[in-house]
Amino acid sequence: RYAKIQSVGKYSDADMLEKLEKALKGQALDYVQAWIDSPNPSVTKIMSDLEDRFFNVDTIMQEGLSAVMLFKRIRTWDREQLENYARVVDTYIHLCTTVGHSIHLNGRLPGEAEDKLPEDLLRDWMKHKSGAIATGSWLEFSFFLKNSLKYLKVQVGDQNGRDSKESKSKS
């Protein structure tokens, strides 16, 4: 990609180095800052090192899976925690799809991922995945989480509606 951008834009190495330094942030910039500041920086070498570190498929997949596995167990039906967990699971699914490893998404998801759920929701998931057409896959788990969140929002909405009716009738 780097070579294509450089040739299409007809940029010099110095121009590319300047653009690269402006574009990089956080860990990526920290990772190559010493090379950028060196007397004769090689933009090609810097880009190669960045690609090896940050665009390594195995690293990307492992980091995505680690985020799921390191998520703390959700003890109750906490909407915010469930939404965050659903987002982490979806991010892993997106990573798998993006790097061309969507085959992983059809396999059974590890029990450690399931065990993050509150007990009653975990029981519902276990019932669901033991159904006749269920696969217990990552994609199915993500869909289950999203449906559970929709159900929770309906429950909260119903409860809020009842609470406001009760407070009006007491007035």
Shape: elongated
Strand content: under 5%
The main sheet comes to:
none
How far apart are the termini? Answer: 68 Å
* Tally of contiguous helical segments: 9
SSE order and pairing:
Blueprint: H1 2-9, H2 13-23, H3 26-37, H4 43-54, H5 57-70, H6 79-98, H7 111-114, H8 119-129, H9 138-170
Description:
The protein has helices at residues 2-9, 13-23, 26-37, 43-54, 57-70, 79-98, 111-114, 119-129, 138-170. With 171 residues, the protein is mostly helical. The model has no long low-confidence stretch (mean pLDDT 82).
Summarize this, please?
The protein has 171 residues and is mainly alpha-helical.
Key phrases:
171 residues; mainly alpha
